[in-house]
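Review form for a predicted model. The reviewer records the input and the model, then writes brief findings.
Reviewer: anonymous (R2)
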Amino acid sequence: MHNFYLVVNSNSGRLPEGREKIVSFLEGRGASVKVQDGHAQRAAIDPGTDCIIVLGGDGTIIRTATESIGMDIPIIGVNMGRLGYLTGISEDEEIIPMLEDLLAGNYQLEKRSLLKGTWKDAAGAHSAYAFNDIAVGHREALHAVRLEVDVNGEFLNEYSADGIIVATPTGSTAYNLSAGGPIVEACSDHMVVTPVCPHAMAPSAMVMSMDNTVEIKVMGGSSARSSATVAAFDGDVKTELGAGDYISITRAEYTVPMVRLSGNTYFNTLRRKLQKLHG
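Model under review:
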């Protein structure tokens, strides 16, 4: 690796020191570094970039992953947030060893799956991608919705719940985990379908192959669009769904390469994050 794109989320007081450490070290080794403050901007990412380094938290990495979809540029994160499930390292003293490993090629690449959601409205067909999850639920909190879930065109179940989450393996430690869904190994070939607070006895979360097509249909609720059900991609609302509308969720045609440093296994990282979460 020689050409780097450094994304710096400036919401942490620790960032200036980490940013300077990264830039100084890489440039001192003859590498090139382009710095982007705030969030990654697709138009600013040089196609010849060898690696994107994210200085921030999981939210910044998710934004970076979606901005770089299709560019096939490896991403690694330095955690400046609270948990950092997606980040490669979490401590300032790990920054220089990380950079040395990147320059020396001491790492592995993990291809992380994405989800693609497709829906129709009066303007036609639309689609968007999600790195963590696609969630369908009521725009307003504390309102249940009735949702039908079909898999490959076959009826699975109807839920009265706060919503339905369809998560990637990477996203299984995010909203899905908070809703009681299972953790799925990040590089596995599965998606997780998890109802959020179902209002009756209903099957729990389901783990299924990424080769399936999951369709979520709105069965009822208010006819007023201002209080409609919405579909959110990684927490970003993309569309409103009225009664009878549906969204189709499939494996995306792209993957996102994430850097895993040698000796830093998925389960080692997961254990450290869970220990931090539970104090």
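Findings: DSSP finds five helices and 16 strands in the chain.
Further findings: Residues 15-28 form the longest helix (14 residues).
Recommendation: see findings above.
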